[in-house]
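Entry 14. Structure prediction run on the chain below.
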Amino acid sequence: MAKKVVASLQTGGKDFAKVIRMVKSEKSGAYAFKEDVVPNEKVKEFLSKK
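Output returned:
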């Protein structure tokens, strides 16, 4: 899946960014990573969500 995202970003995805955020699980306390492809305008909004 990551290869498709990277390929689409290279071929004309100048308006989008792949963002990875670390999220702590409430149950176990372990950390997980949440990845998403968002428009450049929404990057700060995505990172500020909890």
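Strands lie at 16-24, 31-39.
Filed with the rest of this week's runs.
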